[in-house]
């Protein structure tokens, strides 16, 4: 296993995702002799996991079963231990595309935070690119380093523990893209510019408040960035459900019959079978929006250095 | 070579040697000149009104006539100067607020100052461009939706991906960019060959194409049933045999999907799939014929070259078939005009367990037709609501659940909002909604054929009456 390469079977030392169903899952570190408790019973790593194929169904001690999945940055984002607020895959996807990241890209990021975006960036720039990530919180920086080592991607990332607004990214003129997720991104725009290659590159700043965006845009303009563009992306998830609606009784029994007759005479139209006239309901499948959705994560401001 | 862009024409010769992102001015002779940074000539704009209470729209505020402006243009005067003249001859300009003046200048600049910037192609640029200019060619796949697909599909270097798209090759190009030439891609194509008009815009280096394979969709059925062999491949001039094969292949594919669904559901439900497929099939055939006719003409001319090409094609086809047969692909991306259900149910067979898949679908056309039909049947609006959205992906979702072997199914859509950010004038620009399409994503798992399957089947049978009824109704729309 590695976050940048698929493996077929589960091995000692892997990070795997235990999928319990209904979007409930958690990560495990696979070790000989270790056991993991789930609500369906115990999973014994030596016998239940190691050597099995990723994607297999594992039966737990109580007879219930779970699926073991290969880790991906997207699954990690949903399961990682939070040390800060994190970026989710919806924002990450547009960031990756708008920063024009691909294998071989050199990226600078600050702050590292919980490493949600970092994993996605590393995935995209591997095997020849590199991520320089700056985190001013020492403990978080160290935790991130540890995770990158565990996930087999340490050769693709450099974690620096310093203040990006004061000391910059620790590199200059090598980056294809810069990403900022800090409280005062406008103070880091100058450093971002010098980190980017002389021939140019892309920058993105993530801020929850419009006032932050305002100041960032001004700073970008002052530093000669072009193509400044601010956007926001929202994810809407739908539940697929079978819904039945009651047909009101309008006292038009005779007319109903005639329309049913009409339907039956049309060979292609069997739609009336969905109308259960005896019960007075009609059933259909519908994509129902979740009752609550994420309404705002942050504004994403993109710009180009030329 | 002469290029026409936004009512301007020019030659690109002068642009060679400049770095990407250079801005050029179009001169009268169609030559490009690099534009220097000009200091904004904001001489008198300091004078400005506070509101528009005294500004009357009498149509006489601009003292220059239409002919005057045309004369200026014909003289080849720089756009910048024309704008300056327009400002000077506008009686109301001084009374306008500072913001309105700003807006006025911006508008005029856009019209009279012909500047173009030459940028490097990328998924960002091309997908934005295609969505704005030719959305029909890419099934209205909005760029943020494409971005989601690339992320949800975990596209990266070293993977073995299956791509089925009818988006002019844009999705393929996006996947190729993210894979950077590492790993392999098998593009499944309908009809006579894959469309890669957008792919060629990326300007990928040659090695990127070494591990790009293609496989005709019409052969998938025979590949899965094990009857696929090189003998069935066209060895004669392929136009005629291909037409035949195409239709044969299609029926074969249909049978395959029939067999497949038969395994876990009744024949009746699979019949329904067939019906939907038939509509699609008709479309394909109509297009194929046209395509083939053109092909035929070309064929007569370059017969011998054809032969050689065909041998190569055959070799590549065998390679692609071998890759597919391993059934260990690292992901599946579908973004086509076809009904996604049969595509997904069949193509998932080639994907290894614990791998992501993403299906894009735009429902709008479907829902519109369905509304129309219902109105014509003079039924109530209620029926319309039942099939207004998600028809194909909803069905796909249900079918996948029945098939098993997939988890974490998610039906989603993204909304994108652009902002204008200017001092004291920040607000959302436009909401783009609905037009971006919908995604169905999930992860494959090992498909167990054990005891638990029996219980699953039972559960299915319990559910069947209701789901069946709904599908009949869906079709009807």
TrEMBL record, chain A:
Keywords: Acetylation, Methyltransferase, Nucleus, S-adenosyl-L-methionine, Transferase, tRNA processing. One of its GO terms (molecular function) is tRNA (adenine(58)-N1)-methyltransferase activity. GO terms for cellular component: nucleus; tRNA (m1A) methyltransferase complex. Its EC number is 2.1.1.220. Residues 64-305 form the tRNA (adenine(58)-N(1))-methyltransferase catalytic subunit TRM61 C-terminal domain. S-adenosyl-L-methionine binds at residues 114-117, 135, 163, 181. The keyword S-adenosyl-L-methionine applies. Signal peptide: none annotated. It catalyses: an adenosine in mRNA + S-adenosyl-L-methionine = an N(1)-methyladenosine in mRNA + S-adenosyl-L-homocysteine + H(+). Heterotetramer; composed of two copies of TRMT6 and two copies of TRMT61A. Catalytic subunit of tRNA (adenine-N(1)-)-methyltransferase, which catalyzes the formation of N(1)-methyladenine at position 58 (m1A58) in initiator methionyl-tRNA. Catalytic subunit of mRNA N(1)-methyltransferase complex, which mediates methylation of adenosine residues at the N(1) position of a small subset of mRNAs: N(1) methylation takes place in tRNA T-loop-like structures of mRNAs and is only present at low stoichiometries. This is tRNA (adenine(58)-N(1))-methyltransferase catalytic subunit TRMT61A.
Automatic annotation (TrEMBL), chain B:
Residues 236-247 have a biased composition (Acidic residues). Residues 43-60 have a biased composition (Basic and acidic residues). This is tRNA (adenine(58)-N(1))-methyltransferase non-catalytic subunit TRM6. Keywords: Methyltransferase, Nucleus, Transferase, tRNA processing. GO terms for biological process: tRNA methylation. Its main location: nucleus. The gene is Trmt6. GO terms for molecular function: methyltransferase activity.
């Amino acid at each position: 296993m590695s976050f940048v390469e698929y493996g077929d079977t589960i091995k000692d030392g892997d990070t795997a995702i235990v999928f319990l169903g209904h979007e409930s899952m958690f990560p495990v570190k696979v070790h000989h002799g270790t056991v993991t408790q789930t609500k369906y019973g115990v999973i014994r790593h030596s016998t239940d996991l190691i050597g099995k194929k990723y994607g297999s169904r594992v039966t737990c001690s109580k007879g219930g079963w779970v699926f073991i999945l290969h880790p991906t940055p997207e699954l990690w984002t949903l399961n990682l231990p939070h040390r800060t607020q994190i970026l989710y895959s919806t924002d990450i996807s547009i960031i990756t595309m708008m920063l024009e990241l691909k294998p071989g890209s050199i990226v600078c990021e600050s702050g590292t935070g919980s490493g949600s975006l970092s994993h996605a960036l590393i995935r995209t720039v591997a095997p020849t690119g590199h991520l320089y990530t700056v985190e001013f919180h020492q403990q978080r920086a160290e935790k991130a380093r540890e995770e990158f080592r565990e996930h087999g991607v340490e050769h693709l990332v450099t974690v620096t523990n310093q203040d990006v607004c004061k000391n910059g990214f620790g590199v200059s003129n090598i980056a294809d893209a810069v990403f900022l997720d800090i409280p005062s991104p406008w103070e880091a725009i100058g450093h971002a510019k010098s980190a980017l290659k002389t021939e140019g590159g892309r920058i993105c700043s993530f801020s929850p408040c419009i006032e932050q965006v305002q100041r960032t845009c001004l700073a970008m303009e002052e530093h000669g960035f072009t193509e400044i563009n601010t956007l926001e992306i929202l994810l809407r998830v739908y539940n697929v459900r079978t819904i039945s609606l009651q047909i009101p009784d309008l006292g038009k029994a005779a007319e109903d019959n005639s329309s049913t007759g009409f339907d039956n005479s049309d060979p292609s139209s069997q739609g009336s079978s969905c109308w259960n006239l005896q019960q007075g309901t009609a059933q259909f499948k519908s994509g129902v929006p979740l009752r609550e959705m994420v309404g705002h994560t942050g504004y994403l401001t993109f710009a180009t250095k030329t | 070579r002469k290029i026409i862009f936004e009512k301007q024409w020019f030659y690109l010769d002068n642009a060679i040697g400049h770095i990407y992102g250079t801005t050029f001015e179009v001169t009268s002779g169609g030559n490009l000149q690099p534009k220097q940074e000009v200091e904004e000539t904001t001489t008198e704009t300091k004078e400005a009104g506070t509101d528009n209470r005294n500004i009357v729209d009498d149509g006489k505020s601009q003292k220059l006539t239409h002919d005057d402006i045309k004369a200026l243009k014909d003289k080849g005067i720089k756009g910048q100067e024309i704008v300056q003249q327009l400002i000077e001859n506008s009686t109301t300009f001084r009374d306008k607020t500072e913001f309105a003046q700003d807006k006025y200048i911006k508008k005029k600049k856009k019209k009279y100052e012909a500047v173009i910037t030459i940028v490097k192609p990328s998924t960002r640029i091309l997908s934005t461009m295609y969505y704005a200019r030719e959305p029909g060619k890419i099934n209205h796949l909005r760029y943020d939706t494409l971005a989601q697909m690339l992320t949800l599909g975990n596209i990266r270097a070293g993977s073995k991906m299956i791509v089925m798209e009818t988006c002019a090759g844009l999705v393929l190009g996006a996947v190729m960019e993210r894979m950077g030439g590492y790993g392999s891609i098998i593009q499944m194509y309908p009809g006579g060959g894959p469309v890669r008009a957008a792919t060629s815009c990326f300007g990928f280096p040659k090695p990127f194409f070494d591990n790009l394979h293609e496989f005709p969709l019409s052969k998938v059925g025979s590949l899965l049933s094990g009857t696929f062999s090189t003998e069935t491949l066209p060895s004669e001039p392929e136009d005629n045999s291909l037409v035949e094969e195409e239709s044969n292949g299609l029926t074969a594919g249909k049978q395959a999907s029939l067999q497949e669904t038969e395994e876990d559901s009744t024949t009746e439900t699979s019949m329904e799939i067939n019906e939907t497929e038939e509509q699609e099939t008709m479309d394909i055939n109509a297009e194929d014929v046209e395509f083939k006719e053109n092909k035929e003409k070309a064929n007569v001319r370059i017969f011998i070259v054809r032969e050689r090409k065909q041998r190569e094609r055959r070799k590549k086809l065998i390679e692609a078939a071998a890759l597919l047969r391993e059934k260990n692909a690292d992901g599946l991306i579908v973004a086509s005009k076809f009904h996604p259900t049969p595509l997904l149910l069949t193509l998932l067979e080639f994907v290894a367990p614990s791998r992501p898949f993403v299906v894009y679908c735009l429902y709008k056309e479907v829902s519109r037709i369905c509304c129309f039909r219902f109105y014509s049947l003079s039924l109530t609006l209620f029926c319309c609501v039942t099939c207004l959205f998600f028809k194909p992906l909803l069905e796909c979702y249900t079918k996948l659940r029945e098939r098993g072997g997939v988890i974490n199914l998610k039906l989603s859509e993204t909304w994108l909002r652009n902002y204008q950010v200017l001092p004291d004038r920040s607000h959302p620009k436009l909401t783009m909604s609905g037009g971006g399409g919908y995604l169905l994503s999930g992860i494959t798992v090992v498909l167990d054929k054990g005891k638990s399957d029996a219980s699953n089947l039972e559960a299915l049978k319990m559910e069947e009456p209701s789901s069946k009824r709904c599908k009949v109704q869906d079709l009807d729309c």
